[in-house]
Design goal:
- The structure holds 3 protein chains of 3 kinds.
- By secondary structure, chain A is mainly α.
- Helix content of chain A is 40%, strand content 8%.
- Chain A is built from 11 helices and 7 strands.
- Chain A has helices spanning 6-12, 25-33, 37-48, 91-101, 107-110, 123-133, 147-161, 171-175, 193-200, 216-226, 237-249, and strands at 80-82, 87-89, 180-182, 185-187, 205-207, 212-214, 259-261.
- A 3-stranded mixed beta sheet of chain A has the order 6-5-7.
- The longest helix of chain A is centred in the middle third of the chain and has 15 residues, at 147-161.
- Chain B is mainly β.
- Chain B is built from no helices and 7 strands.
- Chain B has strands spanning 6-12, 16-23, 45-52, 55-62, 71-77, 84-91, 96-102.
- Chain B is elongated, with a radius of gyration of 15 Å.
- The relative contact order of chain B is 0.31.
- Chain C is α+β, with helices and mostly antiparallel strands.
- Chain C folds into 2 domains: 1-33; 42-148, Sandwich (Immunoglobulin-like).
- In chain C, the strands form 2 sheets. In chain C, strands 1, 3, 5, 6, 8 and 9 form a 6-stranded mixed beta sheet that branches.
- Chain C is built from 4 helices and 9 strands.
- Chains in contact: A-B, A-C, B-C.
Chain lengths: 262, 104, 153
């Protein structure tokens, strides 16, 4: 197979529609098979079972939507509405909830270091890796029936197109048009199921370029930074609504994470 | 600095035993600048040893050109259930780690 | 100071000097050899010379599986399988890296001459493999294009 050069790639104007023919497909497949993802999953399992906080209990009775302690399929069913918290939550918002209610820890403490680095992953990251693995192979089925779930979806949709900040950016500024890229990274159109499905099926992920593990909360935070908008609070209604909007857009896709990202 | 988790899986196949091992290690080349702007010193795994039932079968010499958090795959001739596989590493700072698995 | 004690101290100092010079290694290091000369070579030819593998014969029996184009040079998966009978060693070199020799594996009776490893590539380069069988060296290579290098920050 003739290798397509950089200039030729620009001429073709690669979009995710051509993802199968992407010259990086072979690389991505091989790296996924040979990435140190499992180390994060193992660390996450230990953390899930670790007694912490004033109540000295583990997270093992945390209800992620399928019942207390049920992990199989939990990630694939998020975000969803939780009656006990009376709000829609994604995985990380739900973990904060369980850490504060079950373990008795303070929110300030559990959100102090939510994003790790190459030397040390955060508690949220390793828990996300472990919990996401338990949904591998299952279809994404975020909550859509409850009124608050519908409201969350609509809020996410609104936020996606809402221009703000000093640069007057919205998510759609980068993710709203076909055939756009930043350097060599194709930009998926994140309100189209065709582009959004493969994306939502591959978070959280091991990020090769920073040798770190990243989650959707990190992605929302970093996108807001790139848009020069104020930093969203961790697992806030804003970030959860955006994640909800995109997950519903990707509903039905078989979850195949945790995966790798460039 | 405590060595991070290390994981190995040994799978018996028709022709060989597939051994896959994941190691936590920064594998610093000495060319990367840290957040303080200074070069992070070279710190990398130099030797990897694979043993079957206590006897070395693979000796690997490794450099800083191997990626951070190395993942290796090896193949052992044959293999029987109950065989004890051990993979160990030593780095240029004298630190080490090892893990064991039994062929299931 | 007594002559015998002085002699003992001198001997100890000499032993220490010899130890420090690396001429007499502690037991642990003896068990784990590391070809410093080969790994510190900045040119492929020097690395090959240190491995004793100059003039290796090209062979199609060495199979290299690797991506044709790597999105990120920090992690490039390389799989090597030698079908040359009696292969006891596989060395992996990345020609354009600051230090070309990336790794070398010696296989004893219980192992197949196969390895998969992730390497760092600073730029597009030939990944070169040297397989040794019965004291004879064979080589194969594959070019991997790299879009972002993986050695520095």
């Amino acid at each position: 197979m003739r290798v397509v050069t950089g200039i030729a790639l620009l001429a073709i104007g690669l979009s995710p529609a051509f993802a199968q023919q992407s010259p990086y497909a072979e690389y991505q497949r091989m790296v996924t098979e040979n990435a140190p993802i499992e180390l994060y999953e193992i660390a996450g399992e230990e953390m899930w079972k670790k007694r912490q906080g004033p109540n000295n209990v583990s997270l093992e009775q945390c209800d992620l939507g399928q019942g207390p302690g049920v992990l199989k399929g939990a990630y694939a069913g998020l975000p969803r509405y939780f009656a006990d918290a009376d709000r829609v939550m994604d995985l990380e918002a739900r973990l904060v909830y369980c850490m504060t209610t079950l373990q008795g820890r303070r929110r300030q403490e559990v959100t102090k270091r939510v994003f790790g680095n190459r030397d040390r992953a955060s508690e949220m990251e390793i828990l996300s890796a472990y919990i996401a693995r338990q949904s591998h192979g299952m279809p994404l089925q975020p909550g859509t029936n409850h009124p608050k779930e519908r409201a969350s979806y609509q809020l996410g949709q609104k936020l996606f197109f809402h221009r703000a900040g000093s640069w007057d950016f919205s998510c759609a500024s980068c993710h709203g048009e076909d055939n756009k890229r930043i350097r060599m990274s194709e930009l998926p159109v994140l309100f189209k199921p065709h582009d959004t499905r493969p994306l939502m099926a591959t978070w959280p992920a091991y990020r090769v370029s920073s040798s770190s593990f990243i989650t959707l909360q990190w992605r929302m935070n970093d996108c807001y930074r790139q848009m020069r908008m104020p930093e969203p609070a961790f697992a806030s209604e804003t970030t959860v609504a955006l994640i909800h909007f995109m997950t519903v857009t990707a509903a039905g896709e078989r979850y195949r994470g945790p995966a790798i990202k460039r | 600095m405590a060595a991070g988790p290390m994981k190995m899986r040994a799978r018996l196949g028709p022709d060989y035993t597939d051994v896959r091992v994941l190691m936590s290690h920064p594998m610093e080349t000495g060319q990367r600048k840290g957040s303080d702007g200074k070069l992070v010193p070279r710190h990398f795994i130099q030797n990897v040893t694979v043993k079957v039932n206590g006897a070395p079968v693979i000796e690997g010499q490794v450099s800083q050109a191997v990626s951070r958090n190395p993942v290796f795959s090896f193949r052992l001739k044959g293999g029987t259930k109950g065989d004890k596989i051990e993979v160990s590493w030593v780095d240029n700072a004298g630190e080490s780690n090892k893990t064991e698995a039994v062929i299931a | 100071m007594e002559p015998s004690r002085r002699k003992a101290l001198q001997a100890a100092a000499a032993f220490g000097a010899v130890l420090a010079a690396g001429l007499l290694k502690p037991m642990a290091a003896l068990a784990a050899a590391w070809n410093k000369e080969a790994f510190d070579s900045k040119k492929v030819d020097d690395a090959l010379k240190s491995l004793g593998a100059v003039g290796a014969e090209a062979s199609s029996e060495i199979l290299i599986e690797a991506p044709q184009i790597a999105e990120n040079g920090a992690v490039v998966p390389i799989e090597v399988n030698s079908n040359i009978r009696g292969t006891t060693s596989i060395a992996v070199l990345v020609d354009n890296n600051p230090f070309p020799l990336a790794a070398k594996f010696d296989f004893m009776a219980g192992a197949l001459p196969f390895v998969r490893v992730n390497v760092k590539m600073g730029q597009t380069a030939n990944v070169r493999v040297v397989a040794t069988a019965d004291g004879k060296h064979f080589t194969a290579s594959k070019e991997i294009k790299v879009t972002i290098g993986g050695c520095g920050g």
